[in-house]
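The instructor's notes for this session suggest beginning with a concrete chain rather than abstract definitions. Hand out the sequence below and ask the class to guess, before any prediction is shown, which regions might be ordered.
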Amino acid sequence: MGQSTLSMLSKQTGTSHEDLGTLVKQLVDAVTPLEGKFNGQGRARFDAFKARSDEITSELNTSLGAILGGQQGMNTSFQMGDQDMGDNAQRAQSTANFDGARFASRA
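After discussion, reveal the predicted structure:
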């Protein structure tokens, strides 16, 4: 995984997060012409969906926001881990005795 992968994913999720509410509202607007076409349970479900569209939008946005927060947390952890790994490797390298590991014949 590249260093910028999670950062890019978070940006894309953020854009989706912004678009989601608009898409649900567009869906409700698109099905409005069908409002009087249903009877029975179909009509009850349709009316319930339409009545709850703001609540559904809010719940979806909250859920996607939580996913976005998790991605940002993973990105922070990954970046810190990458930095720590580099620092640890640098410390280990600075204490290594490379002269003691030479395999040349000694005269």
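Then share the key points. The mean pLDDT is 83. Residues 7-73 form one domain.
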